[in-house]
């Protein structure tokens, strides 16, 4: 269980190179593009060093636009973070496109007690599902691991079958709404009612369905109070990554930030960053975190719901 004083940090680093070429991804510049040079290397380490000067325990989400483990620099910084006393957790994401031997090499020198891994499943790119599953299970013996399915509109009808196949791994599986345009419609807000039913049945929790698929309004939010969003370009710190946010200071020249004193109403009509930190107050009202990973949490009233089905998370009024 995470400390109540833990600050959740979302730090997208805009590393864009990837070993996969998913048809729905705009980040990929190609694994073989040797000219690619990550422009934010110096900023990344400098911002992290200043972040560590804050008087907080930190749960840091290092989020690339491409594949994390393609970058030796990112792996080096993550390794260093796990060795710091005030870092409680380092959450990483990968497409599991490497071998067990390669992942073993990547994680050399890491304090694995502080690592949690989110694995994105991309059915168009995986060549051998059995090998992919075996690699996941090997890593799950060493750290918390969860799987994410992307609800790309043309693939939505396939996701229930994929979900059923992956359930045998006994690893948390979540569904992220597709973010972007497809055939003139803006997602994740353009899913049909039929698609929503497909996705509801396989969603990890009521919370993830309501925010990622159903697109409810965020309401009161802990962003800026219990979590922060860092812009790697200039080190500016904001309450979250949505267009309407609150400036909290900067971390490029020093630990120059002031957190909010409590939750505030979200100024955006929809939330598309909640899969990172679970900021809306409604999450804390209905769920308890049980570990350092993004999907280590459980419904607070599950025992009561066993005796009274009306209290099940899918039956209550979620707001």
Could you outline the blueprint of secondary structure elements for this entry?
Elements: E1 6-12, H1 41-51, E2 57-63, H2 72-82, E3 87-94, H3 100-106, E4 115-121, H4 129-140, E5 145-151, H5 159-166, E6 173-177, E7 180-182, E8 185-187, H6 193-202, H7 206-213, E9 220-221, E10 227-230, E11 236-238, E12 247-250, E13 256-257, E14 264-265, H8 274-277, H9 281-286, E15 287-289, E16 297-299, H10 302-307
Parallel strand pairs: 1-2, 1-10, 2-3, 3-4, 4-5, 5-6
Antiparallel strand pairs: 7-8, 9-14, 10-11, 11-12, 12-13, 15-16
Helix pairs in contact: 1-2
User: What is the CATH class name?
Assistant: Alpha Beta
Estimate the mean pLDDT confidence: 91
Helix segment count? 10
Strand order of the largest sheet: 6-5-4-3-2-1-10-11-12-13
What fold name stands as the CATH topology? TIM Barrel
Q: Largest sheet, if any? A: 10 strands, mixed
Give the fraction of residues assigned to helices.
25-40%
Rounded to the nearest angstrom, the radius of gyration is 19 Å
Q: In CATH terms, what is the architecture?
A: Alpha-Beta Barrel
Strand content: 15-25%
Q: Kindly report the oligomeric state of this protein.
A: single chain
> What is the number of strand segments?
16
Strand-and-helix sequence, N→C?
EHEHEHEHEHEEEHHEEEEEEHHEEH
Overall tally of domains: 1
- Global geometry: globular
Which structural class should the secondary elements be placed in?
alpha/beta
């Amino acid at each position: 269980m995470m400390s109540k004083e833990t600050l959740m940090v979302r730090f997208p680093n805009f590393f864009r190179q990837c070993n996969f070429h998913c048809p729905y991804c705009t980040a990929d510049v190609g694994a073989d593009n040797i000219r690619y040079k990550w422009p934010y290397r110096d900023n990344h380490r400098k911002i992290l060093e200043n972040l560590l000067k804050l008087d907080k325990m930190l749960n840091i989400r290092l989020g690339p636009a491409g594949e994390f483990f393609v970058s030796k620099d990112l792996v080096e910084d993550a390794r260093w973070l796990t060795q710091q006393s005030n870092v409680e957790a380092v959450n990483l994401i990968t497409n599991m496109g490497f071998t067990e031997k390669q992942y073993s090499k990547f994680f050399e020198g890491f304090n694995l007690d502080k690592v949690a891994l989110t694995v994105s499943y991309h059915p168009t790119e995986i060549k051998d599902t059995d090998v992919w599953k075996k690699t996941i299970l090997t890593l799950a013996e060493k750290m918390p691991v969860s799987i994410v399915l992307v609800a790309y509109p043309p693939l939505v009808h396939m996701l229930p079958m994929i979900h059923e196949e992956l359930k045998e791994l006994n690893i948390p599986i979540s569904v992220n709404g597709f973010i972007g345009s497809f055939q003139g419609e803006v997602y994740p807000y353009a899913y049909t009612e039929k698609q929503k039913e497909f996705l509801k049945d396989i969603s990890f929790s009521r919370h993830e369905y309501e925010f990622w698929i159903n697109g409810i309004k965020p309401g009161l939010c802990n962003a800026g109070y219990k979590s922060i969003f860092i812009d790697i370009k200039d080190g500016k710190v904001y309450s979250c990554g949505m267009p309407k946010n609150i400036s909290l200071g900067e971390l490029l020249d020093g630990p120059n930030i002031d957190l909010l004193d409590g939750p505030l109403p979200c100024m955006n009509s929809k939330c598309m960053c909640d899969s990172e930190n679970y900021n809306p107050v409604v999450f804390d009202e209905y769920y308890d975190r049980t570990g350092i990973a993004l999907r280590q949490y459980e419904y607070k009233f599950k025992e009561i719901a066993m005796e009274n089905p009306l209290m099940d998370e899918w039956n209550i009024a979620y707001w």
